[in-house]
Amino acid sequence: MSTFADNAYKLAKEAKRTMEILAPYNEDLVRSICREIRFLCSLIDKIKADMKSELQQNPSAITTVLVHHLTVKRSKRVLMAYHRQRVNRVKQIIWDQGNVLSSDNRIALSGPEIDFAKDYSELMTSYKQNFMEIDLGGNGGIGLDPPDDLFIEVRVLKDAGEVQTEYGVLNLKRGSQFYVRRTDVESLIRSGYLKHV
Amino acid sequence: MDNNSTLNSSIHITQSSDAFYETGLDDEFATDDVAEMTQIWINERNSPEILPYRRRLVEDLTELIEHQGMVAMEGLSENVDMRFRSMLYQTEMERIKFLIRNYLRTRLYKIEKYTTYLLNRPDVRERLSDKEYEYAQRSVFEQMPFDFHNFIVPNLKTVFPGNAKSYAELLEKHYSKSFLNTLPQSQQDVNEKINTLSSVSVPDEYSAVIVRGKEEQGMFELESRRQYEIRLSPESIYMVRYSDIKLLLDEGQVELI
């Protein structure tokens, strides 16, 4: 039998390794850690029930309970850290790329994470509505970079039809080039229709 | 030329030029707002904990931007000179928008990072705006129109149309669905404390900040190291523990840089 919290250690290492990327959700490992926690908790309960009042007098039993308890807490902590790190990653993706999760990302996420992404983007949108004039960005919109030039030169990479701006209508045909206001085309650049030249 | 005077009195296009700042401008009010916003934003960026929300400032500037946007649009159709002006105003507007956007997003970042801590500490919770508080935790009892005379409890569905949840709820739901609900009852608590390790993130008050006095204020004794004093003046810059200058920052005697 493997040592207690072995799997938790594995998960912690995986979390550390995948700090910068969104790795596929390790459901098997998470499940086996949960199983171990359940097993240890039942052991603790059993020892407690068997010994009752004698527990205090039995150093070996008390140590067993303590070690098992610490293992449980340790494993739980790792689980929390693993999930929190992934949640932060998911949030970053939603701010940077928008709520439409790409299929690559979708495969890497667990069911609850996909739900979280959906709910989070709703929450964010409802907060953003308080500041319409400012446009807080997110959902692949304007980023947190300081503003550069007001107008930029863009080349059209993919046909995007006609786009209405405050300066008139742009007919975005592939290969053509425009001098436009940055804020008008920010989202088109991010979604790959235009390229800043 | 009526347009011009409105433009001039609202937002100056000289924000980036320090020289212009110091030589004094005809309208102190708006320029001060932008300068203040810049400082507030820098403070917020550099402080480990969330600072009191500056509602008036954000609202004023947002209003100005809205107004300015309309004025700048009017300038478009006019001659070349006006178009050039309009472009300058728009550039400046983008800069101010950036300030506010970054300020609000920085706050959101801290709110998400320290959600539980913020919500459990009434003194810290006060620093959030209403909307930010709602974002962190929608409090059912505070927002529910409760009729005490007739004891009519409104249907929750009608009070909160849609199902936008607060961040705290989202996170708890997520943890619970991901793994907590498969654990034994005794281990299902999200926030727990084992010895010195707590699962609640708390801002690090001991982290270092770089600070500068706003005016000549004389010496100030550091709380963490009694034998050390720092001189509060615009010329002296120190790197100190955040907890040491927390009060000074609150009183507006120092600024973070």
Description:
The complex is a heterodimer of chains A (197) and B (257). Chain A is α+β, with helices and mostly antiparallel strands and 197 residues long. Chain A has 6 helices and 5 strands, in the order αααααββββαβ. In chain A, a hairpin with a 2-residue loop joins β2 and β3 (168-172). The longest helix of chain A has 39 residues, at 59-97. Chain A is elongated. Chain A starts with 5 loop residues before the first helix and ends with a strand. By secondary structure, chain B is mainly α. Chain B has 3 domains: 2-113, Methane Monooxygenase Hydroxylase, Chain G, domain 1 (Up-down Bundle), CATH 1.20.58; 137-198, no CATH class; 208-256, Ribosomal Protein L9, domain 1 (3-Layer(aba) Sandwich). Helix content of chain B is 53%, strand content 10%. Chain B is built from 12 helices and 7 strands. Chain B has helices spanning 2-10, 18-22, 28-46, 55-76, 80-113, 115-120, 122-125, 130-136, 140-143, 156-159, 167-178, 242-250; strands spanning 193-194, 197-198, 208-213, 218-221, 229-232, 237-241, 254-256. Chain B has a 3-stranded antiparallel beta sheet. In chain B, a hairpin with a 7-residue loop joins β4 and β5. The radius of gyration of chain B is 24 Å and the shape is flat. The relative contact order of chain B is 0.10. The model of chain B is unreliable at 1-28 and 140-162 (pLDDT under 50). Chains A and B meet through α2, α3 and α5 of A and α4, α5, α8 and α11 of B.
Most residues in contact, chain pair and counts: A-B, 46 and 47 residues
Number of separate strands of chain A: 5
H-E string of chain B: HHHHHHHHHHHEEEEEEHE
The total beta strand count of chain B reads 7
**Class based on secondary structure composition and strand pairing of chain B:** mainly alpha
Mean pLDDT of chain B: 76
Here the CATH topology of the largest domain in chain B equals Methane Monooxygenase Hydroxylase, Chain G, domain 1
Percent helix among the residues of chain A? 55-70%
N-to-C CA distance of chain A: 61 Å
**Residue windows where pLDDT falls under 50 for at least 5 positions of chain A:** none
Low-confidence region ranges of chain B? 1-28, 140-162
Shape of chain B: flat
If helices are DSSP runs of H or I spanning 4 or more residues, what is the number of helices of chain A? Answer: 6
Helical segment count of chain B: 12
Strand order of the largest sheet of chain B: 6-3-7
Function (chain B): The GINS complex plays an essential role in the initiation of DNA replication.
Subcellular location (chain B): Nucleus
Main location (chain B): nucleus
InterPro entries (chain B): GINS_A, GINS_bundle-like_dom_sf, GINS_Sld5, SLD5_C, Sld5_GINS_A
